[in-house]
Protein: Mediator of RNA polymerase II transcription subunit 20
Organism: Discina gigas
Amino acid sequence: MPVTGLYFIQETTTPPAISILTDRLSKRHQPIPLGRWTFEHRLLRENPPPLPTTPSSPTSPQQSPQQPAPLQQHKFMQWLDLSYHPYMLFILADKQIVTSEREFELIVRSKMASMWTVRQTLRAVGYGYEVDDFRVRIADLTQGDQVKGVVVEIEYTPCSYIEQGEGIIRDFMAGLQPPDGRFTFAPNEGYESGREWTLLDTGRQYCEILRFR
C-alpha cells in the first residue's frame, strides 16, 4: 500500500485554495486526470443510558448535601466512505479502526438509531490526477452549504514505508506552494515506526484530520 500524506487547508484564501493548487499542479507538472472522486465522513456520538438515581430524602443536620451526579463520558464513532474504495466503509471506534461492508450503515440506522446521534457530516468533491509516481486528489470539503476548506491527498506509489516516502511527499507538496495548512502523516494512534503502511492507516489519517472539523 503506498504511503499517503494528507493536507487540510482552511478556506480563507481568495481565489479559493482548490483553484490555486489545481492551477499550479497543471503548470508545474503534466498531470493525467483520473476523474472525479468524493468522500463522506460522519461523526456519531453515543447516547448513553441515563444514570441510576436514588430516591431523595430531606437533609438532616447530620447528613451532607447530595453530591452532584458525575458527568457522563460520551463515546464517538466515525464513518469514512472513500469513493475509490467503493465496496467498503471505514469505521473508527474506541481507537480501533476496521473496514466493513456498507450494510453496516443500514444496521446502525435501522437497529441502533436510538444508541447513536450524528453530530457532524462532512462531504468532499474533487478530482484526482496522476503525476509520475504520485497520485494526487484535491477536493473541496463542505458541511451542508458551508465550505470548510480543501483536502489534498498525495500517494507516493513506489514505497510503502513512511521512512522512505515522507520527505518525498512533503517536497512535492511544498513545490505547489500551498496556503498554510495542516499536514498529517502517521496517525497519532495505531501506527508504529518501521511498519508497512496499510489501507487502515490511510483511513485513520482521514478520521484524525476531519474529527470536529
In short: The chain has four helices and nine strands. The beta strands are 3-10, 32-46, 76-82, 89-93, 96-100, 116-131, 134-143, 146-156, 182-184. The mean pLDDT is 86. Helices lie at 17-28, 103-111, 162-175, 199-210.
